[in-house]
Amino acid sequence: MTLSSLSRLSPLLLAALLAACATTTPPMEAPASDTPPSPPPVATEAAPAAAPAVVTAPVRVMAAELLEDNLRPGEKIDLDAPDASADLWVRLRQGFQLQDLDDDWVRKAEAWYSARPDYVERMTTRGSRYLFHIVDEVEKRGMPAELALLPFIESAFVTHAVSTAKATGMWQFMPATGRDFDLKQNIFRDDRRDVLASTRAALDYLGRLHKQFGDWHLALAAYNWGQGNMQKAIARNQKAGLPTDYASLKMPDETRYYVPKLQAVKNIVLNPDRYALSLPAVANHPYFLSVKIERDIDVALAAQLAGLTLDTFQQFNPQMNKPVILAAATQQVLLPYDQASAFAENLARHTGPLATWTAWVVPKTMSPADAAKRTGMAESALREINRIPPKMLVKAGSTLLVPRAPHVHDDVSERLADSASLSLAPDAPPLRRVTLKAGKGDTVAAIAARYKVRSEQVAQWNKVGSSARFKPGQAVVVYTAFKPTAAPAKTTVATRAVAKNGKATVRAAKPAAPRNLAKDRGGKGRNVVASAAP
Question: Which residues in the chain land under pLDDT 70?
Fold first, then answer.
């Protein structure tokens, strides 16, 4: 397909006149077992009724028909140019600037990688897909090229990696830090997993840390440990009259090992043969193409139009939390160069709907069953696609992903795409606070059994042990379920239950009565004070 033929296609296709091109680097593979686990897969929708005839064979663009790189405006990409066929590892080595470390921590990391050649091969093969873009961004900022190796340490270049501390993505951003650097996190997407956005944010953060501490080793350690902790460690040494360089500061072993691990990877890149390791060939030109998106489109359909498996598409575009790409929030997707050409051709042929999902704002608090009826979904499907746990209500103002009706033509708005959230509340009756006077022999277990709650709860409410025994007459607090009744319009009438021969006589109290009294279910004549829980 020539550029002249592209120019005659639809406006949507013209918007896909693309960006950074890709190359014939090693094929994608599923994440290895020794890398962080992937998040639960999202449910995928049925294929659209009017499926296109998909071009699966790569469509190569001739060298004379150069595409402009949207990530580097004004530049044309020529895969046949001498620079494009150069070795990216050589370019990377030439940009190394950091002072080398040489200690036992470095030796330990070198030994660890050397003993795992299969792991190193998988890690570097994954990294080869993103290295050109990262090296390019590092060079634009005049930063040391070693920073491009940091995702090897953070995530082994697994774009959907999640740590036990909930750090996410290739650059392992914590939620709050991600928000500080404008990485959106909502029900539709998590930009901490976005290849372009997270790289921009990580380099912004590292630049800020270097400006704060004036040393790249300290900046790297602060990236792992947190800038506040690093500042405190420096202040402690200053107070004690000690040096404040990286080697002199007291820090956790994880952080102490962090920079040496980066040094070990640097040493491997410099001389892989020394460690009996090999690096994949990486050409000095972009691996992926940035394709503009103008309308909402299902993830599965986008992958189909590109001739990619869903898994491969998601490895390039791991930021999507739902099976739909919202154009208002995600203006571009990343595709291998050849598949981007196929995507453009197949998109022009497609006649069915692009998106079968849309967003719906819940007007009032309701159960998932009620929400499913309102949207024409099965309750199980609504729960699965929106990740709603059992026994939970969906609160008013929440956003749910629901099927897009045939008559709906508008895409999800930018405001909703950026701010959508899901708020849940327990689907349980309200609780009231009951205060009773313990009788002779009452224990935590006895009170718990009487009110059908757990002993641990009674103990917690009363700040005693689970095996504690209450003193006769001691005030005991229990929270129990009840059905609230409507109060009279202007006066409050309390009820008083008076124990009399094992029976309760109920009479109206004076309007000024300050509380409700009800008979304890123990039938021992104990006074019980009931009030709504705060």
Answer: 1-79, 82, 430, 482-534
Alpha-carbon separation of residue 159 from 127, 206, 347 (angstroms) = 10, 19, 27
Structure-block tokens of residue 287: 């691996």
* CA distances for 492 relative to 330, 514, 517, angstroms: 56, 9, 14
**Domain ranges across the chain:** 3-78+287-349, 87-275, 357-426, 431-532
* pLDDT score at 470: 93
- What pTM did the predictor assign? 0.71
Nearest CA among 310, 392, 395, 323 for reference residue 359: 323
Least Cα distance to 36 among 154, 176, 162 occurs for: 162
Cβ within 8 Å of residue 82, ≥6 positions away: none
Q: Retrieve residue 303's tokens.
A: 């992958």
Q: Specify the pLDDT at position 293.
A: 87
Within 13 A of 376's CA, how many CA atoms are on the CB side?
8
Task: From the candidates 45, 154, 254, 384, give the one annotated as an active-site residue.
Answer: 154
With tokens 């036990």, the residue in question is 164
Assign 516 to helix, strand or coil.
strand
Using DSSP, how many helices (H) and how many strands (E) does the chain show? 20, 16
For residue 292, the surrounding DSSP H or E stretch is strand 288-292
* Per-residue confidence (pLDDT) for residue 19, from 0 to 100: 39
Q: Where are the alpha helices (DSSP H) in 141-245?
A: 150-154, 175-180, 195-213, 216-225, 227-239
Q: For residue 432, what are the CA distances in angstroms to 301, 321, 528? A: 51, 39, 12
Q: What is the pLDDT of residue 70?
A: 56
Q: What does the block give as tokens for 280?
A: 């994949």
Q: How many CB atoms lie within 10 A of CB 58?
A: 13
- Full 3-state SS string of 352-418: CCCCCEEEEECCCCECHHHHHHHHCCCHHHHHHHHCCCCCEEECCCCEEEEECCCCCCCCCCHHHHH
Cβ-based burial of 471 (10 A; exposed 0-12, middle 13-18, buried ≥19): exposed
Domain 87-275, CATH among 3.10.300.10, 1.10.530.10, 1.10.10.10, 1.25.40.10? 1.10.530.10
Residue with tokens 């009756």: 429
How many Å apart are CA 156 and CA 136, to the nearest integer?
Answer: 19
**Is 154 designated active site?**
yes
Q: What is the pLDDT of residue 508?
A: 36
Q: In this predicted structure, what is the pLDDT of residue 121?
A: 96
Burial of 339 (0-12, 13-18, 19+ CB in 10 A): buried
Paired tokens of 366: 């309701």
pLDDT for res 475:
93
Q: Which residue has the tokens 């999902």?
A: 357
Going by C-alpha positions, the residue among 381, 377, 357, 379 that lies closest to residue 368 is 379
Question: Strand ranges (DSSP E) for 39-167?
Answer: 67-68, 76-77
> Of 381, 305, 278, 298, which is closest to residue 43 (Cα–Cα)?
381
